[in-house]
Amino acid sequence: MKRIVEIDVAELAIRLCEANYGLVRPTPDAGEALAAMEPECSSAWLRSAEAAANYFAELAARAPTEN
């Protein structure tokens, strides 16, 4: 059985940043945390998260289905 879930790209971006740098976000809201970054940094994290989300979607699309 496939499960379809929506990936929050902002949340994924912040979690990637936290994992890479061992940081704790300044606010629980991922959008606010991204807004607190320099624009170049937040854009880069969002691009990375979008690439990862697209990869996850490709994997889900190719996954075999159970009958």
Helix-strand blueprint:
Layout: H1 9-21, H2 30-35, H3 39-62
Helix pairs in contact: 1-3
Task: Record keyword descriptors for this entry.
single chain, 67 residues, mainly alpha, 3 helices, 0% strand
Polypeptide structure, described:
By secondary structure, the protein is mostly helical. The protein has three helices and no strands. The protein has helices at residues 9-21, 30-35, 39-62. The longest helix has 24 residues, at 39-62. The chain starts with 8 loop residues before the first helix and ends in a 5-residue tail after the last helix. The mean pLDDT is 91.
Task: Sketch the topology as an H/E string, one letter per element.
Answer: HHH
Helix content: 55-70%
Poorly predicted tracts of residues = none
What is the mean pLDDT?
91
The number of distinct helices, counting runs of at least 4 residues, comes to 3
Measured distance between first and last alpha carbons = 8 Å
The backbone outline, from C-alpha atoms, is elongated
- Please state the structural category: mainly alpha
What's the number of extended β-strand segments? Answer: 0
Major pleated sheet? none
Q: Cα-atom Rg, whole angstroms?
A: 14 Å
Strand content: under 5%
Brief synopsis:
The chain is an all-alpha fold and 67 residues long. It is built from three helices and no strands.
